[in-house]
Amino acid sequence: MKSISYAIFRKFLLLFPIIWLEMSCSTVPTAENSLLTEASEVYAQASADPNTASLEALAEAKSALEKAKTSKDNETKEHFAYLAKGYAQIAITVAKRQALELERKKLLQPVPSLRENNNLNVNNQQLQQQIAYWQRNPNEQLVLILEDIWSKTEPADLLPEARLSLNTVARFLDPHPELQVIIKSYNDNSSNDQYDLGLSDRRAHAVKFALINRGIRSNRIRATQASRLLTQNQTATKHKQNNRVELIIFKEENKKL
């Protein structure tokens, strides 16, 4: 009996180094697994940043990381893990740069003068008067005019001060789900036709998105570009008219364009 126990013990002693080596190898990460772990961590950091959501680099990082995780060959796994980590780092860097650029633009945004603020208040009062008139004659088509609402540095960006007029329009539209809106954006002919039409389209959609963000359903709004000038650019007043936005508001059954 003792001889059998000793034989078993001796066999265990001979096998122990092999068992220990296998256990050690299974717990110590390889270079490939270490790189994959790093790539996964950097991708998680990048995807947690809301500013990277629309970046192509983040999509590339996700694709490469998935290929790295499913690759059987260590060399291929390491290659895609390296790519995933690189793309994720690019996404983080680009997102930070874009955020800084946005802050820079905000700092450079010209502060409206007292006269400009007065113009905005006047415009909003005119909107309120037009809306009040429509409420007394609700079967008529309503055309609201928005002026002085565009940034001077980014011509398709709404000024922060434009929210006053947009809030007025949204508050009017909200309790009237039967009303539809067509947004017509005009701009001057200071550039070539292709650019002007593109700018007109971007401006119309900027107003549409602003109304959607204020709770107006997108299927009630149609944004269109204007293909002609309202007037020739001869004076500052006419120049302003050519950079206006018309909101044509109507009931579907009374559509008149």
UniProtKB/TrEMBL annotation:
Pfam families: DUF4398, OmpA. Transmembrane segments: none annotated. It comes from the Bacteria. GO terms for cellular component: membrane. Residues 138-253 form the OmpA-like domain. Keywords: Membrane. InterPro entries: Bact_OuterMem_StrucFunc (IPR050330), DUF4398 (IPR025511), OmpA-like (IPR006665), OmpA-like_sf (IPR036737). PANTHER family: LIPOPROTEIN YIAD-RELATED, STATOR ELEMENT OF FLAGELLAR MOTOR COMPLEX. This is OmpA/MotB protein. It comes from Thioploca ingrica. The lineage of its organism: Bacteria, Pseudomonadati, Pseudomonadota, Gammaproteobacteria, Thiotrichales.
